[in-house]
Each structure stands twice: as structure tokens, then as C-alpha cells.
Amino acid sequence: MPTSLTDITTLHNGVQMPWFGLGVFKVQEGSEVIESVKAAIKNGYRSIDTAAVYKNEEGVGKGILESGVPREELFITSKVWNSDQGYQSTLEAFETSLQKLGLDYLDLYLIHWPGKNKYKETWKALEKLYKDGRVRAIGVSNFKVHHLEELIKDCEIKPMVNQVEYHPHLTQKELLVFCQKEGIQLEAWSPLKQGQILSDPIINQLAEKYGKSAAQIVLRWDLQSKVVTIPKSIKEQRIIENANVFDFELTNEEMQTIDGLNKDERVGPDPDDFMAGFTE
Q1: In this structure, are residues 8 and 32 in contact, taking their beta carbons and an 8 Å threshold?
Q2: pLDDT of 199-213, one tens digit each?
Q3: Domains with residue ranges and CATH for the chain
Q4: Which of 29, 95, 224, 273 is 20 to 30 A removed from 213 (C-alpha atoms)?
Q5: Which residue among the candidates 45, 54, 109, 119 is catalytic per the annotation?
Q6: pTM
């Protein structure tokens, strides 16, 4: 069980990944993203998650550079966007991301969405980047069990991470169990359901009991579910508060109560239907 912001999970290839990090989805390029990355790193975060489609990789790179923390102490993730899927185009997209970030390598590179028929080709490109030492770990995002089964059938290297929408209204138990069985680390995006979960009365009762915020209760539930978590914020105070989840522990009963809030309800698109940016 993670007990501090620097605690790590070991991926199936031996690479160590922080349990907790900063997501920068919808954080504006320029000073907004630079400052939030710097604030996170200054306050002990070591993992930053971006993506080509967020259009803020340059700012993330500047924030990293200005943070003054050595590159090897950080864990940086980016993702290949749908319209770049395919073997050659993925290799090119990777170089573009790296250039924008101003980095020599990535710690984790993900396929952003499965789409319909190109992700196996895209995965071959990720395997090549991994074998060439350009990226320390490779994975996928928004893959359901059937996508993973299909990919694992033909891949040489199994994904190390699957980053999905995950919060108390979308507990994805089947997916979590499948990933644990296959040695794939599950990671949560939108862990607070874009704020919608924070008004839940049960979450708020627990917040009162522990003297914590509703957000801290949910983020703690993620970690105790053994799910890597990357809440997004642009306010330094909130960045600090989000990470202040290592000094208490929910009971098994409370964990089950939160699990029971599941409605299989998404704020993002269903990966089986989402084709935005895919070129056929």
C-alpha cells in the first residue's frame, strides 16, 4: 500500500512507476501548463502525464526543465493520437512528441484509444521504440478486456499499463481483475469524474470522518484499489491537497461501500464507439 508520494509500483518489466502523478488534460499550453507542472514537481510529484492531442507537450517540457529536478528522477508519459495510428506514423508521432517535450526518451508511451483495426500495427511500432530504448515502458489507454485479449494474442511484449476512465461510478471490476491477472498496471484518468463524484453523500460522510476532502477520499480509494492515479489540477493548493492522501487508510468495509457506488457511468466516450481522429 503506497504510504508516500514517492512510492512506486513495479511494472512487469521491472520499471518503477509512481503510484501518483499529475494529469494535464485540458491544461492550456503556455504559462498555465508550465506553472502546474512546476508546482507539482516542487511539491514532490515525480510523474507527469500528457498526450499529443492535449497540445501542451511543449509547456510540459518547459515545466520539467524549469523544475530543476534531474530528468532521471521523473516519470513522463505521452500518448499517440488516433489519427497517427499505424506503424510508420506512430514512429513519427513519437519523434514529434519527444521533440516538443525536449526529452531524449519517455518513461511510458501509450496508444490513446483502441479504434477499430490499427492498434496492432501501432503496437508493433511501440514494441520497436521499446526495444530501441527510446521508451522505458509501453502501454495502452482506454482498452477494454476484449481489446487487450486481441492485442495479447499477437504481441511480442505485453502492455505494461492500461490507463482508463476509472472512478467510483465506473469501477470496471472485470477489467481490473483481468489486468491484475495479466500483470498490466491499471491507471485512472478522470479519477474524480471531472468533479461530479464530489457531491456524493457517502463520499462526503467519509470525508467528514477522516477530516479529508471528498476528492482525497476518492483518490485514496484508487490507491487502495491498486490503481495508479493522475488527478489534474492547475491550482498549486489543489495539487498539494490531492497528494495529501497518504496519512489515512479506508477500511475494507468502506472500500466496498465506495465500490457499491458503481453505475457503469462514463464522462468520456465508450472506447468501443469512439473513432474521433481516426483515419480509415
Answers
A1: no
A2: 999 999 999 999 999
A3: 8-259 (3.20.20.100)
A4: 29
A5: 54
A6: 0.97
